[in-house]
Specification:
By secondary structure, the protein is α+β, with helices and mostly antiparallel strands. It has three domains: about 35 residues; about 45 residues, SH3 type barrels; about 30 residues. It is built from two helices and five strands, in the order H-E-E-E-E-E-H. Strands 4-3-2-1-5 form a five-stranded antiparallel sheet, with no helix packed on it. It is elongated, with a radius of gyration of 27 Å. Belongs to the YajC family. It comes from Vagococcus humatus. One of its GO terms (cellular component) is plasma membrane. It holds the Pfam family YajC. Keywords: Cell membrane, Membrane, Protein transport, Translocation, Transmembrane, Transmembrane helix, Transport.
Length: about 120
Amino acid sequence: MGGAGAMFLPLIILAAMMIFMTRSQKKQQKQRQEQLDSMQVGSKVVTIGGLHGIISEINRDKSTVLLDCEGIYLEFNRSSIATVLPSEPVVAATTVDASQKETEEVSEVAETDDKDE
């Protein structure tokens, strides 16, 4: 009886590994589909070939996107989009500029004080 149980143990481990692998593949596939569905006109994307561009048109019937790559328009299949880049927050850039201006003003005041002495 002990020999039969030991014989089924590798099969049980193999089945468990297959279940875990399929779950992770389905999860990755779902994330990829959500990423493709989130594409909209104006989104910055990178193709599987490494080309960066901005989506200027989406044709859901033909499952294609038209990319604007610095004035050159190219049509790609939706599946050839590798990643949709997150939009850059404008507020953060403005905050950095404001803090840089404050730093510059402080250094200008310090330089003016040094010249007066």
